[in-house]
Write a structure and sequence with these properties.
The protein is an alpha/beta fold. Helix content is 46%, strand content 19%. The protein is built from eleven helices and ten strands. α1 packs parallel to α11 and α6 packs parallel to α7. GO terms for molecular function: uroporphyrinogen-III synthase activity. Its EC number is 4.2.1.75.
Protein backbone atom coordinates (compact mmCIF):
# COMPACT_ATOMS: atom_id res chain seq x y z
CA UNK A 1 0.00 0.00 0.00
CA UNK A 2 1.37 3.41 -1.01
CA UNK A 3 0.88 6.13 1.61
CA UNK A 4 1.21 9.87 1.04
CA UNK A 5 2.31 11.72 4.18
CA UNK A 6 1.52 15.45 4.14
CA UNK A 7 4.42 16.60 6.30
CA UNK A 8 7.99 17.86 6.25
CA UNK A 9 10.84 15.40 6.34
CA UNK A 10 12.41 15.10 9.80
CA UNK A 11 15.49 12.95 9.49
CA UNK A 12 16.60 10.98 12.53
CA UNK A 13 20.11 9.92 13.49
CA UNK A 14 19.98 7.28 10.76
CA UNK A 15 19.31 9.93 8.10
CA UNK A 16 15.74 8.82 7.46
CA UNK A 17 12.37 10.25 8.43
CA UNK A 18 11.03 8.09 11.30
CA UNK A 19 7.57 7.83 9.71
CA UNK A 20 9.04 6.54 6.44
CA UNK A 21 11.13 4.01 8.33
CA UNK A 22 8.35 2.77 10.62
CA UNK A 23 5.79 2.37 7.84
CA UNK A 24 8.34 0.49 5.73
CA UNK A 25 8.75 -2.01 8.58
CA UNK A 26 5.03 -2.73 8.15
CA UNK A 27 5.25 -3.15 4.40
CA UNK A 28 3.93 0.33 3.60
CA UNK A 29 5.62 2.51 0.98
CA UNK A 30 5.40 6.12 2.15
CA UNK A 31 6.25 9.42 0.44
CA UNK A 32 6.50 12.86 2.04
CA UNK A 33 5.04 16.07 0.62
CA UNK A 34 5.27 19.22 2.79
CA UNK A 35 2.10 21.32 2.78
CA UNK A 36 2.80 23.84 5.56
CA UNK A 37 5.19 26.70 6.23
CA UNK A 38 5.48 28.83 9.37
CA UNK A 39 6.09 32.51 10.03
CA UNK A 40 7.30 33.65 13.45
CA UNK A 41 6.48 36.92 15.18
CA UNK A 42 6.31 38.51 18.67
CA UNK A 43 9.56 36.78 19.59
CA UNK A 44 10.79 39.81 21.54
CA UNK A 45 7.69 39.59 23.74
CA UNK A 46 8.19 35.86 24.21
CA UNK A 47 11.86 36.44 25.06
CA UNK A 48 10.86 38.94 27.73
CA UNK A 49 8.46 36.45 29.29
CA UNK A 50 11.03 33.64 29.19
CA UNK A 51 13.48 35.87 31.04
CA UNK A 52 11.10 35.97 34.05
CA UNK A 53 10.37 32.36 35.05
CA UNK A 54 9.43 33.62 38.51
CA UNK A 55 6.22 35.03 36.99
CA UNK A 56 4.98 31.64 35.74
CA UNK A 57 4.01 28.25 37.08
CA UNK A 58 5.44 26.42 34.06
CA UNK A 59 5.46 26.12 30.28
CA UNK A 60 3.08 24.46 27.81
CA UNK A 61 4.54 23.48 24.42
CA UNK A 62 2.17 21.58 22.16
CA UNK A 63 4.05 21.67 18.84
CA UNK A 64 7.57 21.56 17.44
CA UNK A 65 6.99 25.07 16.08
CA UNK A 66 6.33 26.44 19.56
CA UNK A 67 9.62 24.89 20.68
CA UNK A 68 11.34 26.43 17.67
CA UNK A 69 10.01 29.86 18.69
CA UNK A 70 11.42 29.36 22.18
CA UNK A 71 14.72 28.18 20.72
CA UNK A 72 14.94 31.26 18.47
CA UNK A 73 14.53 33.43 21.56
CA UNK A 74 17.15 31.49 23.47
CA UNK A 75 19.64 31.62 20.60
CA UNK A 76 19.29 35.40 20.55
CA UNK A 77 19.47 35.70 24.33
CA UNK A 78 22.46 33.36 24.62
CA UNK A 79 24.48 35.80 22.55
CA UNK A 80 23.74 38.54 25.07
CA UNK A 81 24.20 36.27 28.08
CA UNK A 82 20.52 36.37 29.02
CA UNK A 83 20.02 32.58 28.82
CA UNK A 84 22.27 31.79 31.73
CA UNK A 85 22.59 28.54 33.66
CA UNK A 86 20.62 29.96 36.56
CA UNK A 87 17.73 30.94 34.27
CA UNK A 88 17.62 27.46 32.75
CA UNK A 89 17.64 25.95 36.23
CA UNK A 90 14.74 28.19 37.27
CA UNK A 91 12.64 26.95 34.36
CA UNK A 92 13.62 23.36 35.09
CA UNK A 93 12.32 23.84 38.62
CA UNK A 94 8.87 24.24 37.00
CA UNK A 95 6.89 21.78 34.85
CA UNK A 96 7.32 21.98 31.08
CA UNK A 97 4.27 20.23 29.59
CA UNK A 98 4.51 18.88 26.03
CA UNK A 99 2.48 16.86 23.54
CA UNK A 100 4.29 13.94 21.92
CA UNK A 101 7.79 12.52 22.00
CA UNK A 102 8.91 14.58 18.99
CA UNK A 103 8.19 17.82 20.83
CA UNK A 104 9.74 16.44 24.01
CA UNK A 105 12.92 15.56 22.14
CA UNK A 106 13.23 19.12 20.81
CA UNK A 107 12.66 20.57 24.28
CA UNK A 108 15.38 18.34 25.74
CA UNK A 109 17.84 19.73 23.20
CA UNK A 110 17.47 23.20 24.71
CA UNK A 111 18.19 21.81 28.16
CA UNK A 112 14.71 21.58 29.66
CA UNK A 113 12.98 18.57 31.20
CA UNK A 114 9.45 17.67 30.11
CA UNK A 115 6.21 16.18 31.43
CA UNK A 116 3.14 14.77 29.71
CA UNK A 117 4.81 13.71 26.45
CA UNK A 118 2.89 10.43 26.49
CA UNK A 119 -0.45 12.25 26.48
CA UNK A 120 -0.55 12.20 22.67
CA UNK A 121 -2.87 15.16 22.07
CA UNK A 122 -3.91 18.49 23.58
CA UNK A 123 -7.03 17.12 25.27
CA UNK A 124 -5.13 14.37 27.08
CA UNK A 125 -2.37 16.81 27.99
CA UNK A 126 -4.98 19.11 29.53
CA UNK A 127 -6.27 16.17 31.58
CA UNK A 128 -2.72 15.48 32.72
CA UNK A 129 -2.14 19.12 33.72
CA UNK A 130 -5.42 19.19 35.60
CA UNK A 131 -4.35 16.10 37.56
CA UNK A 132 -1.22 17.85 38.83
CA UNK A 133 -0.91 20.10 41.85
CA UNK A 134 -2.03 23.52 40.54
CA UNK A 135 0.09 26.65 40.84
CA UNK A 136 -1.26 30.10 41.62
CA UNK A 137 0.96 31.43 38.84
CA UNK A 138 -0.15 31.17 35.19
CA UNK A 139 1.27 28.63 32.77
CA UNK A 140 3.03 30.26 29.80
CA UNK A 141 1.66 28.91 26.50
CA UNK A 142 3.55 29.98 23.34
CA UNK A 143 1.39 28.87 20.43
CA UNK A 144 0.26 29.44 16.86
CA UNK A 145 -2.65 31.53 15.68
CA UNK A 146 -4.54 28.33 14.80
CA UNK A 147 -4.30 26.78 18.25
CA UNK A 148 -7.24 24.65 19.32
CA UNK A 149 -9.59 25.74 22.06
CA UNK A 150 -9.85 22.42 23.89
CA UNK A 151 -6.78 22.80 26.11
CA UNK A 152 -7.39 26.46 27.10
CA UNK A 153 -11.06 25.72 27.86
CA UNK A 154 -10.30 22.65 29.97
CA UNK A 155 -7.73 24.52 32.03
CA UNK A 156 -10.05 27.51 32.45
CA UNK A 157 -12.89 25.24 33.60
CA UNK A 158 -10.58 23.81 36.25
CA UNK A 159 -9.46 27.27 37.38
CA UNK A 160 -5.89 26.78 36.18
CA UNK A 161 -4.46 30.14 35.06
CA UNK A 162 -2.78 30.26 31.66
CA UNK A 163 -1.20 33.04 29.62
CA UNK A 164 -1.06 32.33 25.90
CA UNK A 165 1.05 34.24 23.40
CA UNK A 166 0.80 33.77 19.63
CA UNK A 167 4.30 33.45 18.23
CA UNK A 168 3.79 31.87 14.80
CA UNK A 169 1.22 31.51 12.06
CA UNK A 170 0.68 28.63 9.68
CA UNK A 171 0.69 29.36 5.96
CA UNK A 172 0.59 27.13 2.85
CA UNK A 173 3.92 25.75 1.73
CA UNK A 174 5.01 27.78 -1.31
CA UNK A 175 5.58 24.60 -3.35
CA UNK A 176 2.46 22.72 -2.29
CA UNK A 177 0.75 22.59 -5.70
CA UNK A 178 3.96 21.82 -7.59
CA UNK A 179 5.04 19.13 -5.12
CA UNK A 180 1.66 17.40 -5.06
CA UNK A 181 1.43 17.57 -8.85
CA UNK A 182 4.88 16.00 -9.17
CA UNK A 183 3.91 13.21 -6.79
CA UNK A 184 0.72 12.41 -8.71
CA UNK A 185 2.49 12.49 -12.09
CA UNK A 186 5.14 10.03 -10.89
CA UNK A 187 3.10 7.69 -8.67
CA UNK A 188 -0.52 8.29 -9.61
CA UNK A 189 -3.40 8.64 -7.16
CA UNK A 190 -2.23 7.48 -3.71
CA UNK A 191 -4.01 4.59 -2.01
CA UNK A 192 -3.96 6.51 1.27
CA UNK A 193 -3.26 10.05 2.44
CA UNK A 194 -2.26 10.95 6.01
CA UNK A 195 -3.15 14.43 7.27
CA UNK A 196 -1.15 15.72 10.22
CA UNK A 197 -3.19 18.81 11.12
CA UNK A 198 -6.45 20.60 10.29
CA UNK A 199 -4.45 23.38 8.62
CA UNK A 200 -2.64 20.84 6.45
CA UNK A 201 -6.03 19.59 5.31
CA UNK A 202 -7.28 23.12 4.69
CA UNK A 203 -4.34 24.11 2.50
CA UNK A 204 -4.07 20.89 0.48
CA UNK A 205 -7.61 19.56 0.02
CA UNK A 206 -8.60 21.56 -3.07
CA UNK A 207 -5.41 20.60 -4.88
CA UNK A 208 -5.82 16.93 -3.92
CA UNK A 209 -9.42 16.95 -5.16
CA UNK A 210 -8.36 18.43 -8.50
CA UNK A 211 -5.49 15.97 -8.96
CA UNK A 212 -7.50 12.92 -7.83
CA UNK A 213 -10.62 13.61 -9.88
CA UNK A 214 -13.05 10.71 -9.92
CA UNK A 215 -10.55 8.54 -8.01
CA UNK A 216 -11.03 10.68 -4.89
CA UNK A 217 -13.53 8.12 -3.55
CA UNK A 218 -10.90 5.38 -3.71
CA UNK A 219 -8.47 7.11 -1.36
CA UNK A 220 -8.29 6.15 2.31
CA UNK A 221 -7.99 9.24 4.49
CA UNK A 222 -6.06 8.94 7.74
CA UNK A 223 -5.75 11.42 10.60
CA UNK A 224 -2.80 11.75 12.97
CA UNK A 225 -5.08 12.77 15.86
CA UNK A 226 -8.67 13.54 16.91
CA UNK A 227 -8.68 17.21 15.92
CA UNK A 228 -7.54 16.33 12.41
CA UNK A 229 -10.11 13.53 12.27
CA UNK A 230 -12.84 16.02 13.15
CA UNK A 231 -11.59 18.36 10.41
CA UNK A 232 -11.72 15.55 7.87
CA UNK A 233 -15.26 14.67 8.88
CA UNK A 234 -16.29 18.34 8.69
CA UNK A 235 -14.93 18.44 5.14
CA UNK A 236 -17.12 15.48 4.26
CA UNK A 237 -14.28 12.98 3.97
CA UNK A 238 -14.48 9.48 5.48
CA UNK A 239 -11.83 8.77 8.12
CA UNK A 240 -10.42 5.29 7.66
CA UNK A 241 -8.41 5.45 10.88
CA UNK A 242 -6.96 7.83 13.46
CA UNK A 243 -3.59 7.46 15.16
CA UNK A 244 -3.92 7.52 18.95
CA UNK A 245 -0.81 9.68 19.28
CA UNK A 246 1.44 11.69 16.94
CA UNK A 247 4.09 8.99 16.61
CA UNK A 248 5.24 6.76 13.74
CA UNK A 249 4.40 3.66 15.77
CA UNK A 250 0.84 4.81 16.50
CA UNK A 251 0.27 5.70 12.84
CA UNK A 252 1.57 2.33 11.63
CA UNK A 253 -0.64 0.53 14.15
CA UNK A 254 -3.72 2.51 13.07
CA UNK A 255 -3.15 1.82 9.37
CA UNK A 256 -2.50 -1.87 10.01
CA UNK A 257 -5.71 -2.12 12.02
CA UNK A 258 -7.70 -0.37 9.29
CA UNK A 259 -6.33 -2.76 6.67
CA UNK A 260 -7.23 -5.77 8.83
CA UNK A 261 -10.78 -4.49 9.24
CA UNK A 262 -11.01 -3.92 5.50
CA UNK A 263 -9.89 -7.48 4.89
CA UNK A 264 -12.82 -8.82 6.94
CA UNK A 265 -15.37 -6.91 4.86
Amino acid sequence: MKVLLLKDSKENDCGQDPYIRELALHGLQATLVPVLSFEFFSLSSLSEKLSHPEDYGGLILTSPRAVEAVELCLEKDSKTGAWEKSLKENWNAKPVYVVGNATASLVSKIGLDTEGENSGNAEKLAEYICSREPSALPLLFPCGTLKGEILPKMLKDKGIPMESINVYQTVPHPGIRENLGSHYSKQGVPASIVFFSPSGLKFSLKCIQELSGEDMDQIKFIAIGPSTARALAAAGLPVSCTAESPTPQALATAIKKALQLQGRC
